[in-house]
Amino acid sequence: MNVASLKNDIAAGSLLERVKADRLERELLAMPQADIRTQHVFLPGIYERTITIPPWTVLTGAGHKTPYTVRLEKGTIAVNTDAGMKILTAPCEFAAPAGVKRVGRVFGEEVIWTDVYANPDNCRDLAALESRLYDLENCELGENRVARLVEQDRKDYELFLSQIGMPAEEVWAIASNESDLVPMPEGYFVELRDSKIHGKGIFAQREFAAGETIAPGRLNGKRTPVGRFMNHSCNPNATTIKGDNGDLSAMATRRIQENEEIVIDYRNSMRINFGITLQGEAPCQVG
After folding, report:
1. How many Å is the maximal CA-CA distance in the chain?
2. Which of 45, 73, 115, 199 measures 20 to 30 Å from 211, CA to CA?
3. What is the pLDDT of residues 54-84, one digit of tens each?
4. Is 178 exposed, middle or buried (0-12, 13-18, 19+ CB in 10 A)?
5. Is 173 helix (H, G, I), strand (E, B) or coil?
């Protein structure tokens, strides 16, 4: 399932009129991915897959190979059905045929959506279940895609460490030194939260436009939480800019969604901060 948070005034029905589901899916994949939580429940002869979808999310689902039942447990969502586009409000339940590829648009409250499948052999192998239930020829499920991107970022960080010739423990010791840390000044819309990439990370509390300065990373030679906790990614949404006085700030390189983690490519920061251009393999490319 591919998702992108699109907080705007476009209803899902008009999206379907403008593009087909597969084209919409490609467009969503190029955007920041919403944080959808997935829960798997196994009952005798039944497999339930529950997703919690953030507000204002537009998403496409995988094609289904078998009939199944949908149970909407919370929230309101516009979704395509056999009878056309409909707005569904929890609680409701309906039977869904095989072959349908759904497009949905969540409104101002999170949605809890459960797909219920027959599981006669009580299989608990998620990879086997996904192969059995979904048409994943052109795309993977959202949680699998997010996990793959996180793994790419971690591997690329390892490559970065090899390029600078420093072990992870030594870099971590330098980063964890709090002697040069200062609190984040007021007036900046960022927040420290748990990160899927590594430990803690910096997250946007509002949307940032491409080219917009987000927050300072270094002030008067001291690091702020942004300078301390911004994680590395091979698909960054921000970069480091340096002021005439040597202060460093994070600047958005593309539109950053509210609640999206703000990430940079450490190679670029090395070049801007220290004038060092790393040689060797290029950073990974996100597919």
Report:
1. 67
2. 199
3. 998 888 888 889 999 999 999 999 988 767 7
4. exposed
5. helix
